[in-house]
Amino acid sequence: MTAPTANRDTKSQTSTSTEPSDKTSVNHVDVLIVGAGISGLGGAYHLQTQCPNKSFAILDSKSEFGGTWRTHTYPGIRSDSDLFTFGYRFKPWTGAPIATAEEILSYLGEMIEENHLDDKINYDHQVESASWSSEAKRWTLSGYHTKTNRRFVYTANFLWMCQGYYRHSQGYTPTWEGMEDFAGQIVHPQTWPDDLDYAGKKVIVIGSGATAATLIPAMAPDCEHVTMLQRSPTFFATGRNANELADMLREIDIDEAWIHEIVRRRVLFDQAAFSKMCVEYPDEVRKELLQGVRDYLGEDYPIETHFNPRYRPWHQRVAFVPDGDLFEGIKSGKASVVTEEIERFTKNGILLKSGETLQADLIVTATGFDLNVLGDISFSIDSEPLEFHETITYRGAMFTGIPNMVWVFGYFRAAWTLRADMLGDFVCRLLKHMDNRGASVVTPTLQDDAQGMNLLPWVDPDNFNPGYLQRGLHLLPQQGDREPWIHGQDYSVEKDAFPAADLDDGNLVYA
Ligand SMILES: Cc1cc2nc3c(=O)[nH]c(=O)nc-3n(C[C@H](O)[C@H](O)[C@H](O)COP(=O)(O)OP(=O)(O)OC[C@H]3O[C@@H](n4cnc5c(N)ncnc54)[C@H](O)[C@@H]3O)c2cc1C
Questions:
Q1: In a domain, 20, yes or no
Q2: What is the C-alpha to C-alpha distance for residues 334 and 216, in angstroms, rounded to an integer?
Q3: Ligand 1 proximity of 415 Cβ (cutoff 6 Å)
Q4: Domain final residue, candidates 367, 382, 404
């Protein structure tokens, strides 16, 4: 795929290009999307289909589309969600529910091709600053082309931030004493070297989230041994990587678009029932999840030590292990689990607090993401630096005092894309509403009734508390204690609330 350096006009585009005094050409579009991952590409599709008269462009610092699915190249990389809901609402998923990164990229590539979005994507464009001018009623984004270092400037009436929520250039690695003494290699899954050879090696994977659960079965057959070293256990759900309903509908020759819709509804129904069970009967759910692991590892395996978390089910994402492959790896003897705290790294491995040493040639730190805010872009509003954490969110999508801007942040417990599609509808409805009102600016603004309301973190830590959020919560916007100032994170509520949202209830101020 080629990387156009400036936005090209097409039949539906009216972007303009001017030449300012410093010779940096300025491209203007109605809507500028930052990020060519699942969210940004989905946003482009919705804009093109629902607001065909709006000009738009996508900027991404990478040389190819796909975001998360391009960044992560570690062995076995795959989705955790089923693709019936992690795929777009508008493009049927026809493969097995859990998909590899390669399959997801191929699906996204088809979507780009089918909708002729290629020309709208400006690759290798690293955005550094975004400033809003109330006088000009527009955003100005500037940055540099990562291959040529040439500066670029885009102006836009509306900014659609689809930059994700974590820093792509590096993962989160805690500092342990003695790391510099370790004679082997230390690798983070987010920056997996292409030429990493782990055949016949003793490997320790630190962590037990979805990444570790993916890596371990993929590496185990080639390593001498791989140890999953966790401080505390994670919940895992197991099952076949197949969807019986989809298979049955295919057998009787139902159209793929129908299958996609029917299976999505089934998956969402089942997920809502599971979430409810977790809240109402957490002990029963815990027992059931542990039994799923016991079925693979047998009665004698110390399930309680290694697979029974301290937190309630669903307090953190429950990692799905398709076809029990992680447990098959453990059963085969090529993989094992150690639940212990690290004392320090040594020359040959890791010394545990218990005094035991784990030998290693390679240590993989599957210790999570580094949350970043607004793509590390320096934002300002009328020349004042934006303090994002001081803003209050409007429906987990817009922010008080930030005009004409939406950030797509997906679900934790359901597939991210459900929210990306839903916000696509919302943005398009809002843009049309502004046009109908003759408004150029929309800014979420607290009305008198909401002044002084209780403010809460972006995500309630009692409800959901993965490490990356705990570490970065202070950087994120706040939410209020009433609608529409709540960041709900519940698809079953939001799927009705967003379309019904009254855009003239006074909380969105137009100019
Ligand atoms: C390994 C892994 C597996 C996951 N599995 C699932 C799953 O199964 N289900 C689920 O719901 N979620 C999953 N997630 C969460 C996942 O991040 C989202 O689901 C989704 O892919 C995010 O898409 P996005 O387009 O919003 O952001 P991203 O995929 O993060 O893409 C953001 C894009 O913005 C670009 N960008 C950022 N900052 C700038 C800048 N300053 N200038 C220019 N470009 C910029 C980046 O280069 C990137 O291409 C997973 C995450 C990881 C890391």
A1: no
A2: 9
A3: yes
A4: 367
- Please write the tens of the pLDDT for every residue from 104-141: 999 999 999 999 999 999 999 999 999 999 999 999 99
The first and second tokens of residue 208, run together, are 């037990």
Give yes or no for residue 319 CB within 6 A of ligand 1.
Answer: no
pLDDT at 162: 98
The answer as to whether 56 is a domain residue is yes
Q: Are residues 107 and 223 in the same domain?
A: no
Same domain as 177, residue 153: no
Q: How far apart are CA 212 and CA 216, in angstroms?
A: 6
Residues 340 and 285 in one domain: yes
Domain assignment present for residue 411? The answer is yes
Return the axis-axis angle of helices 491-500 and 416-437, rounded to nearest 10°: 10
**Residue 165 CA neighbour count, 13 Å, CB half:** 19
Total-model pTM = 0.94
- 207 vs 27: CA distance, rounded Å: 45
Can you give the residue range of the structural domain that contains 328? 173-367
Q: Whose CA is nearest to atom 51 of ligand 1?
A: 68
Verify whether ligand 1 is closer than 6 Å to residue 85 (CB atom): no
202 assigned to some structural domain: yes
pLDDT digits (tens, 9 = 90+) for 434-461: 999 999 999 999 999 999 999 999 998 8
Q: Mention every residue, 6+ apart, whose C-beta is less than 8 A from residue 197.
A: none
User: Hey, is 260 helix, strand or coil?
Assistant: helix
357-359 sheet: strands from edge to edge: 342-345, 349-352, 357-359
Whether residue 301 sits in one domain with residue 241: yes
- Domain co-membership, 60 together with 95: yes
Question: What's the pLDDT score for residue 21?
Answer: 41
Measured between alpha carbons, how far is 172 from 159 in angstroms, rounded to an integer?
28
If asked whether residues 305 and 376 sit together in one domain, one would say no
